Q: What sequence folds into this?
């Protein structure tokens, strides 16, 4: 996986959330995102849900999720932007509150600020430092978040995290952020 560049963008529009994936190699080198576990056991028991679906919903608020590889899934659209760069973000850290350029309604609550987690998520209402993926909602983990990568990352070891407004949207981008304890990077 480390021989190709992984990129994800999270987009917030008033009343809309988008997660886009891109590999920076062009359509002839399209990569499909998937989860795989080798061997006889899960190395992290209890953190991985048993049902890994590529689409679902709507939930009681009308939200759906769908992978771009699914029929009628979203079409990737690269967004090139120069945003505000977050400096000195450590392992299991967050920054915020960061003012959004518009009010954003998420699960019936309206927010004007967001928090960026070093482990690949944005949250509303409060920051979090959670690095373990789990099913949500769950009483033991942050629930008020959009997890566009949500894995154990360490931007203190390298990479750039930036955010900003692009036309009528707000974008958060991770570029070459290091995996915790590993040599791989993600761009999201």
A:
């Amino acid at each position: 996986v480390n021989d190709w560049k992984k990129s994800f963008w999270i987009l917030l529009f008033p009343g809309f959330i988008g997660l886009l994936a891109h590999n920076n190699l062009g359509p002839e080198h399209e990569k499909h995102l998937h989860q795989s576990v080798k061997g006889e056991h899960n190395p992290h028991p209890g953190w991985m849900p048993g049902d890994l679906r590529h689409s679902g919903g709507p939930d009681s608020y009308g939200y759906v999720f769908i992978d771009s590889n699914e029929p009628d899934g979203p079409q990737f659209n690269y967004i090139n932007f120069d945003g505000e760069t977050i400096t000195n973000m450590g392992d299991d850290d967050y920054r915020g509150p960061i003012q959004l350029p518009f009010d954003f309604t998420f699960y019936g609550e309206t927010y004007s600020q967001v928090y960026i987690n070093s482990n690949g998520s944005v949250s509303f209402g409060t920051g979090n430092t959670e690095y373990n993926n789990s099913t949500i909602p769950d009483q033991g983990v942050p629930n008020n978040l959009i997890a566009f990568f949500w894995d154990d990352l360490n931007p203190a070891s390298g990479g750039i995290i930036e955010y900003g407004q692009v036309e009528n949207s707000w974008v958060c981008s991770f570029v070459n952020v290091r995996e915790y304890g590993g040599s791989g990077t993600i761009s999201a």
Notes: Residues 7-33+43-186 form one domain. The chain has a mean pLDDT of 75.
